[in-house]
Specification:
The protein contains five helices and eight strands; from the N terminus they run αβαββαβαβββαβ. It has a single domain, classed as YbaK/aminoacyl-tRNA synthetase-associated domain (YbaK protein). A hairpin with a 4-residue loop joins β2 and β3. The chain is of the alpha/beta class. A five-stranded mixed beta sheet has the order 4-2-3-5-8.
Length: about 210
């Protein structure tokens, strides 16, 4: 595991401005031109859909304008129900990484979150690290991106409340699309990508 400090890793949490918890870096939410740490091209939305289809999972995908924030995503739902999230790509001082998916309205205190997941002090990882390990850019972070972590360097953690909000909705590594699938389908996909997620009760991570 690369434990070095990336130039640009975000040392201060700041506000959770984007739907993925990152601050606005000005990067377009596409993977065009980016490379994984292995040197390979990251999976596209089409690749994610092909994986879901190969697993005989039921899903649907809608296209829309690019969405970077939770507030933007709320404008394009057209009455859709189910679970919506914000996705936080975090690292600690040792370089360990976590992809934490919480309900979109769940307040997050990074100090309390880091303690609960056993990570110690955590901060947002840089866009460079995000691309290297999950193959996406800020604004497109999603649990479906574990398909890109073939080295299994990222620990996936999901808010327990989302399991009760069937179906769930995520970007398929592209924030101009939203893929809707059942909770069990999401679990099957993540396990097939060798990323069995930890399902955690996050009711105690709100700021006090």
């Amino acid at each position: 595991m690369n434990s070095s400090t990336d130039s640009g890793d975000l040392k201060n949490a700041g506000d959770l401005n984007n739907a993925d918890g990152s601050t606005d870096s000005g990067h377009p939410a596409t993977v065009s031109g980016g490379r994984l740490i292995t040197g390979e091209c990251p999976a596209s939305a089409e690749t994610v859909h092909q994986r879901l289809t190969a697993l005989n999972l039921t899903f649907s995908t809608q296209t829309h304008e690019a969405m970077r924030t939770v507030e933007q995503s709320k404008q394009f739902r057209y009455g859709a129900t189910g679970g919506f999230s914000k996705n936080l790509f975090l690292r600690n001082k040792k370089g360990r990484m976590w992809l934490v998916t919480v309900s979109e309205d769940q307040p997050v205190d990074l100090k309390r979150l880091g303690s609960q997941i056993g990570a110690g002090r955590v901060s947002f990882a840089s866009p460079t690290r995000l691309m290297h390990y999950l193959g996406v850019v800020p604004g497109a972070v999603t649990p479906l991106a574990v398909i890109n972590d073939t080295q299994k360097q990222v620990t996936a953690i999901i808010d327990q409340s989302l399991s009760l909000a069937d179906p769930v909705h995520f970007h398929p590594c592209d924030n101009t699309m939203t893929t809707t699938l059942g909770w069990n389908a999401l679990m099957t996909y993540m396990r097939d990508c060798d990323h069995e997620p930890e399902v955690v009760d996050f009711t105690d991570i709100a700021p006090v």
